[in-house]
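Entry 14. Structure prediction run on the chain below.
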Amino acid sequence: MSGPASGSQSGSRRRGVIRKVGAWPRGSLLGGLGEETREEFLRLGRPRQFATGETLMMEGDRTRHVYLLVDGCVKLTANTESGRLTLLGIRVGGDVVGEFAALDGQPRVATVVAAGPCLARHIPHETFVEFLQLRPEAGLAVNRAVVEKVRWSTRRRVEFGSFSTLTRLARVLVELARSYGEPVPEGVMIGVALTQPELAALVGAADITVHKALTTLRRAGVLGTGYRRIVLHDLRRLQSFAGQGQNPSEYEVPGRPGRDSVNI
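Output returned:
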């Protein structure tokens, strides 16, 4: 695990890229903050770099610090009662992880692992709580983030018993596109590398069943897949498979030749 002293040149390059891009996902914690509060948040704690597969937090730990993700992607996993490891969710730059334990003092409910090279800020519990008290905007934003995570989990539980695997897969893909979508010439690429078993865990279905559902969507021209890569070609049709109506667009990207533009 690299600390702030080692690889400082690499860290500077990464932070330079972040500042140059200057855009946080709209659904992320930082994306919903004003510039002054966001910059103050980014100065809290100390920087840490994590390599692919490195653990940021462990399920069951009683630590209370948080990590503010600056660049990269992490996966949240937990063990089921049967001992199976399941993927609970994904967080990217602009999100915070570990806030549940920081706020309620209970053991960690998930293990957080870097899905690729990751830059984060380690923020002690006391510093985090004090900042939320002094900056009501940040406190409200963290509350919204917690509520959204609970809502997401609740939707998954309801959908597991109410919809087919194909419908649940389509709904998960729509949500991933809204949160992590990156416009590309072919449509929208989900900017998170997921294995098929990980996607199956998010959907709550067997790997082979999700494979069949992906094949259905691929043959319908809705998406294309590669190694840990999903590109959505037709969001409107995907929403139809998801049983959802036309939702307000957050942004528009060019469609493939002969197709309409793709909205998210």
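The CA atoms of residues 187 and 233 lie 5 Å apart.
Filed with the rest of this week's runs.
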